[in-house]
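Entry for nicotinamide-adenine-dinucleotide complex. Fields follow.
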Amino acid sequence: MSSDNKFDVIVIGGGPGGYVAAIRCAQLGLKTACVDDFTGKDNKASLGGTCLNVGCIPSKALLESSHHYEQLNHGLENHGIKVSDVTIDVPAMIKNKDDIVGRLTDGISGLFKANKITSFHGHGKLLAGKEVEITSNKNKITSISSESIILATGSRPIDMPCAPIDNKNIVDSSGALDFDKTPKKLGVIGAGVIGLELGSVWSRLGADVVLLEAQDTFLPVADSKIAAEAKRQLRKQGLDIKMSARVTKAVSKGKKVTVNYEDSSGEHSITLDKLIVSVGRRPNTDNLFAPEAPIELDERGFIEVDELWQTNHPGVYAIGDLIRGPMLAHKASEEGVAVAEVIYGEKPELNYNVIPSVIYTRPEIAWVGQTEQQLKAVGEKIKIGIFPFAASGRAQALGDTSGMVKMISSEQTDQILGVHIIGPQASELLAEAVLAMEYSASTEDLALTIHAHPTLSEAMHEAALAVDKRALHIPNK
Ligand code: FAD
Ligand code: NAD
């Protein structure tokens, strides 16, 4: 193998895990290659993985567009603003989303060039002897090798055999980002993060949306008080959320799709224009390594790694959606940075206890740390402070007063153990809680911190005060 094909590090996968790992490796002076197989709408290589191409960014672009439309239609009367004849041009909205994706994915290519990272477009497969074979349409392009290889191939939607994707009427999350018009009736299987975000987009634009959720608990990953408020608010907006609903069959015919499902009241059949299947994602390990280079997987199909992200194969690491933990872009990126530093010879640590989670519905739902139900289940003695946005001057001025901040701390030490927010700009407010928890802060620390007035962040301050029943703008019970 020529020296051109030998690298210090090869990254397979160019998503937020892989591209960030590649940039950090290059910053550390390592000769780095990144192999990614994603092809954009224009049939060209498009770096950024699921997140930039068909995940975080395009979904947030559509959430913003649909929010503006909804605000103009229903959200401004209280401000004395009357707007009529508001229309939505769905193809223009989709083009705006595609333009944003194009700018950001081109930006990653620019960063690769600036950092002198060699980029290969094709499918990477780990062979014995730390060789990576790169193919395109099953034709071999080249082989490269390295002593250190980072697997960062991400995840893909889980299929439901009873509701096969036809990319016409039955789509996965990627298809749901590209409807050419608002479906009149839209079904969503799975009321998880994707179902709620994309269901909200199309509901705001006028679709009748029904979500069919198999479990009987809504958003079990969230704090139960916040989840109950979210369910109430989202139902009020018109999302028809059906719990304990098991889809038995979905058949696409002509321009319609018929869905049969069962719930506690019996069997039902509904006819829809589109159906989104969003029942979770699974790691992309198909054809990733040859039998001679076996990589150990856990019982759920994720790649097993040790505390320094190394697989059973010395020098081969894995990060992001491929390994245990939440499937989140920022978790993948932080692992990418950390693993680059491991390869460079450092021993970085990542605090998995303070990974923020956000659901970008309106109201936004955001949390970090543990929920009340998790803490009570392990017998932890806790204190709780809750501050409703209705008592926030800034939220009143915004005309967006739904929701609350819920702060949980240890009864013994007052250390913050979890912060759970539902309400305006919850995603941005959460950063203060993440930083506080990273520094093992107490609610007293937050209570002593001066917050600007009038800001939504005062709700964080008040929730910290409420933990010890000394909130200033609500009665303390
Ligand atoms: P990916 O981003 O999946 O990247 C993996 C890359 O590897 C892809 O380009 C893939 O094509 C490529 N690849 C796969 N196999 C091979 C191979 N053998 N050879 C070469 N290349 C290969 N997370 C958030 O934190 N915030 C959000 O708001 C958010 N919104 C989301 C919305 C949607 C609709 C979806 C679907 C996901 C969302 N996520 C969000 C999750 C987020 O996208 C993932 O957690 C994140 O992209 C994982 O990063 P990754 O680098 O591990 O993998
Ligand atoms: P999810 O796990 O959030 O939700 C899937 C839902 O489908 C669950 O509620 C589950 O009970 C339900 N379900 C499973 N099988 C079912 C069935 N047969 N019938 C009906 N319901 C069924 O998964 P997702 O929404 O597909 O998202 C995948 C991943 O992407 C998530 O882990 C999430 O972390 C990530 N993501 C994150 C964001 C964000 O950070 N804002 C946004 C989108 C996606």
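NOTE: The longest strand covers residues 139-151.
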